[in-house]
Structures are given as structure tokens and as C-alpha cells.
Specification:
About 35% of the residues lie in helices and about 15% in strands. The chain is an alpha/beta fold. Pfam families: Asn_synthase.
């Protein structure tokens, strides 16, 4: 009889406390529901593997070693699989470790060393903090804090402006594609999973890139096709539509969740519904809250979630959990994989693409919004036509109610330039993972961020990321070409955007009293820190035009204030989920 496959991908996080010095210490290890943090009385090695109910325990490599995992694992976690991973870590065979499938992240704890690892495509936030004699690591950075107030005030100020910053200077994230080796008195970091450009023939055409991208996306979604019913966050845009098309083509039993709004200026449900109808996929709209529940002081945040949609994600997570979904895909990384970071005549003329396509792109540039002198200047290697912002990207957020920064940052837009190369999830996304998805046993999966597609992106010429055509700038042309044979033209030809910011701007206009009390009142942490100026805030709140202009920063600041309040409540005595283990 064939052995029953071990459930895969249900490892929701891990935690460890490992002392160094003296002889090998006792191992205290438990597999627990997400968020349960046992409190032991012994001084040895304390290890917690968070997992969904019914998930098999990770096999022990030996009596003196433990392997902990977090995230999606492709394939059964058998003793042989564990032995292969452990041997590759201990013996430094990094190339073999990089070839193992899945989004591997976790920790190997041995007598005298600990290996923390995270693959290049890993969506997991794994953090550590160490001294000469003690290492602590966790997927939740608050496990590594000694008390409240360990954040960087300047990072908090930047969070109020909507920047994606990590606020804990004493906690170190494990970077994607790295192994961190910790032993007594020494920490070393090694790259093991590089994202190398995909090998493709010279002068590969745009259509050939589109075909390869589809094959790689199918490969990325296949592990979810046999997992039972899978969900997807379907926005109505091209990225999530591409993931849904691949899931359907792979035979997955999938249902689409759409964050719906009653605001006609931001309603994308028509696009999302058209995608589902074309593919024959169930469509579930989740009507979002724009009222009193939009900001909730009871929220507990391990990190500032300084975006505008936390309450809407919470409502979606509640519905997904009620439906029994444990795997939820989304279209994150589409902009980074297929979209423009820089574009100009230099990339068109020197890019590795056929001469016929170079001619087409040059003619398109002549009909574009850019003036001829500027197009000619972009023939220089360091010049980009997007230096004033790529299509659909704004500059810095106005924040007229914040006090001036000593560093002179306030009021200045973010510096132009290409984003960092595939840094993994932002701290805000990791925060949502810890507070919304994992507590409900939901794994958020990112097929567009697979290593294969990242390698394709590293190979793709800049000239294929934007298509100037008849005066229009068409973003992500490779993705559109990939979808052109799989969707009606109304889907893949979609150009421009609705006004997605309309609902939260209306919330700000209708709830200025809530914002005044939360971020401008005498109890506000941001006022006491000298970041919010109550007089400036009152001036902004009194004028509807300035309210709309500052709406994003006002909500980012409100969410940052809620983080500070939850941080102030954070003590060992009130940490959620502690149980006593002897």
C-alpha cells in the first residue's frame, strides 16, 4: 500500500531560545497552534514549532538536533527530506540546499551552532537577536523584545509618512537567500540562493518572454492544485487575474475573494467578476467597512501596519476562514516582475531584443508624452524617462501635520531610482501575516514571486517593461501579452485605474473627530514623541481640501499610533498565548 502523503505547507512559524556556553543543554521542544508561546522553567534550549492542526511534526534529525520550519514546503516532510536539508546546512553544500523545492525558511538547532535560513523566494519574516551567550529567533519580532519602547523614533516618523520601514534596531531580519550561522561569540552570514538571470537565447522576443512567463507561472501554482479548495485575493487587476488563470489551468479548486466597495469611484468588481465568469470560478465579494470599525484600538500589532486597508483585510480574512480556506494566493510581485523601474532610449537601443522590435519601440517613443530632447537625453546609460516617477507611482505623501524632522526628510518625496531587488515581503505585509492570516491558519501564497519568475525578471530587458504606443504608456506588456490569449480584450487591455483611494479619503472627511482624538489628543504617543504637531493637525482637519491631500499620511499616522499603543501594552505578563510547560 502506498504511504499516505504527509500534509505540506502548514508550518505557520517558529520560535527559539538557545543558550551557548558550557555543555550541551537540554532541548525543550513543542509543536503548538500558532501564537502559543510556552513558558519553561528550565534554562535549556526552548523551541516552538507553530503548525496548523493535523500537521505532522517535523522529524528530528537526531536526539541532539531539531529542525524548525516556517512557510510553504513543496513535498512531504519525510525523514529523508529532513536529512538532505540538514546535511546540506551542516556541510556547507549551499548549491544543493538552493535546489530544494519550495519556499524554505526556518532554523536548524544543533549542540553548538544554529543555522537560520531563508530561500530567495521565501515569503517568511524570520528574525533573530543574539549576545555572546544567547540566541533568540522567531517569526514574530516581538518575541525578541525585552519590553516596550525598543523601536527607533526616526523609523516611527517615517512610518507615519507611509514608508515601509522596519522599526526595531535591535532585531535583525534574515535576508532572502541567506544562511545565518550563530555560535558562541560569532555570527556569520552567507548567500546561498542567488537569483541568477534565466538562460534564454539572444534576442528573445516579447512574445517568447510571455510564453516562458506562463510556463513558469504554471510551475509555481501546481503545488497548490492538489491542496483542496484554494482561495485567491482577486483585485480586478492584471496580476491577480494572471495567478487565477494559472490556478484554473492547473486544475486547482479555487474560489476568488474580492474586496468590494460601495464607492463607485473605486469599484473594481466588474473587472474581477468578468475574470471569474470567463474562467468559471466562484466569485465572492466581501463588502468593506468604511465606518466606525475602520480603526480599532483593540488591535495588537507586532509592527506598524501603516497602510489604509487593514480593516478590509481583516474582514476578508474572517470570510476566508469561515469558508475553511487554508491556502490563499494573491498577485503580489507583479509590478516588480513585469513592471518598469527605469526606461529610456538607451535600454531600447542596447537591449537584447530583435532589431524589428527596437524600431517599433523607437516609433512608440516619438508618439509618447515625452518631448524629443528628453528622449534623446535618455540615450545616456544612467538616464531614465521615469526619473519623475513611473506611470501609476506617486511621489512623497504630504504630511502637513508632522513636526519637521531633524534629518530634513519631511516634505521631500522619496528618492527616485530602482527598488531593491526582490526584498521579500514588507514589514507591513509580515505584520498582516502575523495578525490576520496565520492566527486563522491561512497561508498567504505568492506564485508571482517564485524563483523562476524572478530569474525571468532578472533576464528581461528594461525595454520590455513599458510599451509606448500611440501616445499611451502601456505598463507590463509581457504580462498583457501572456494574458491576451486567455482573457477577453476588456480584461487584458485594461488601461488606467479607478480611484482606489476614494473610500479611505471619504472616511477621513467623515471621521476627522476620530483622527483628532487618536493622533492629536493629549494621550497620543506621537504627540508626546514630538512627531505630530496638534496645532498643525487642527489646521489640516479644518480644511476639506487639505484633508484629502493628507488622507494617506493621516491614516498611516493613525495606524502607527495604534501600533505604539499596542507596544505600550506589551509586557511578559500580558503576552498573548503563554502557557506553562514544565
Amino acid at each position: 500500500m502506498e504511504p499516505v502523503p504527509v500534509p505540506v505547507g502548514d508550518y505557520l512559524g517558529c520560535y527559539g531560545r538557545v543558550p551557548f556556553g558550557g555543555g550541551p543543554s537540554r532541548i525543550s521542544y513543542v509543536t503548538a497552534p500558532f501564537g502559543q508561546r510556552p513558558s519553561w522553567s528550565d534554562p535549556g534550549r526552548h523551541l516552538v514549532q507553530w503548525a496548523a492542526p493535523g500537521t505532522a511534526r517535523v522529524p528530528f534529525p537526531s536526539e541532539r538536533e531539531r529542525l524548525l520550519l516556517t512557510g510553504v514546503v513543496h513535498g512531504p516532510v519525510t525523514p529523508a527530506w529532513v536529512g538532505r536539508l540538514v546535511s546540506a546546512l551542516k556541510e556547507g553544500r549551499h548549491a544543493e540546499l538552493a535546489r530544494m523545492p519550495g519556499e524554505l525558511a526556518g532554523a536548524l538547532v544543533t549542540d553548538h551552532r544554529v543555522f537560520l535560513f531563508r530561500s530567495a523566494a521565501g515569503e517568511e519574516g524570520l528574525h533573530y537577536r543574539c549576545s555572546a551567550d544567547l540566541l533568540r529567533f522567531s517569526t514574530d519580532p516581538t518575541d525578541l523584545l525585552d519590553g516596550p519602547g525598543e523601536f527607533d523614533p526616526e523609523a516611527v516618523r517615517r512610518s507615519c509618512r507611509g514608508e515601509a520601514v522596519f522599526v526595531y534596531p535591535g532585531v535583525t531580519p534574515v535576508p532572502p537567500g541567506r544562511i545565518v550561522t550563530v555560535e558562541r561569540g560569532a555570527v556569520t552570514t552567507a548567500a546561498y540562493d542567488p537569483v541568477t538571470p534565466l538562460e534564454l537565447p539572444a534576442r528573445t522576443t516579447m512574445a517568447e518572454y510571455a510564453g516562458t512567463a506562463w510556463d513558469l507561472l504554471l510551475e509555481a501554482v501546481r503545488p497548490y492544485a492538489g491542496r483542496g479548495r484554494t482561495g485567491i485575493l482577486l483585485s480586478g487587476g492584471l496580476d491577480s487575474a494572471a495567478v487565477l488563470a494559472a490556478l484554473a489551468a492547473a486544475g486547482a479548486d479555487v474560489v476568488a475573494y474580492h474586496r468590494a466597495t460601495r464607492d463607485p469611484l473605486a469599484d473594481e468588481s466588474g473587472y474581477a467578476r468578468a475574470v471569474c465568469e470567463h474562467l468559471g470560478v466562484p466569485f465572492v465579494p466581501v463588502v468593506t467597512d468604511h465606518g466606525a470599525g475602520y480603526l480599532d484600538e483593540r488591535w495588537e500589532f507586532p509592527h506598524p501596519y501603516n497602510h489604509t486597508a487593514y480593516r478590509w483585510l481583516e474582514q476578508t480574512a474572517e470570510r476566508v476562514a469561515r469558508d475553511g480556506i487554508t491556502f490563499l494566493a494573491w498577485g503580489r510581485e507583479g509590478d516588480r516582475i513585469f513592471g518598469p523601474a527605469r526606461y529610456g532610449l538607451h535600454g531600447v537601443l542596447t537591449g537584447d531584443l530583435p532589431a524589428r522590435e527596437k524600431a517599433v519601440l523607437c516609433r512608440g517613443l516619438l508618439t509618447s508624452r515625452w518631448e524629443l530632447p528628453r528622449i534623446l537625453r535618455s540615450a545616456a546609460p544612467g538616464s531614465s524617462l521615469l526619473d519623475d516617477g513611473a506611470p501609476g507611482r506617486g511621489g512623497g505623501r504630504p504630511a502637513d501635520f508632522l513636526t519637521p524632522s531633524a534629518a530634513g526628510r519631511d516634505g521631500a518625496p522619496a528618492a527616485a531610482g530602482a527598488p531593491p531587488e526582490h526584498p521579500g515581503p514588507t514589514p507591513q505585509e509580515h505584520c498582516a501575516n502575523l495578525t490576520l492570516w496565520r492566527p486563522r491558519g491561512i497561508q498567504l501564497c505568492n506564485p508571482l514571486g517564485s524563483k523562476g519568475l524572478r530569474r525571468l525578471s532578472a533576464r528581461m530587458p528594461d525595454a520590455y517593461r513599458l510599451l509606448p504606443h500611440q501616445g499611451r504608456l502601456i505598463t507590463k506588456p509581457v504580462l498583457r501579452l501572456m494574458l491576451s490569449s486567455r482573457f477577453p480584450a476588456a480584461v487584458w487591455r485594461r488601461h488606467g485605474r479607478l480611484w482606489p483611494g476614494s473610500p479611505h479619503k471619504d472616511y477621513v472627511l467623515g471621521h476627522r473627530h476620530v483622527l483628532a482624538a487618536l493622533i492629536g489628543g493629549p494621550e497620543a504617543h506621537l504627540v508626546r514623541m514630538g512627531i505630530v504637531d496638534p496645532l498643525r493637525l487642527a489646521g489640516v482637519l479644518a480644511e476639506p481640501a487639505r484633508l484629502r491631500l493628507n488622507a494617506d499620511a493621516l491614516l498611516s499616522t493613525a495606524m502607527t499610533e495604534l501600533f505604539l499603543r499596542s507596544d505600550a501594552r506589551r509586557t511578559p505578563a500580558n503576552r498573548r498565548g503563554f502557557t506553562r510547560c514544565l
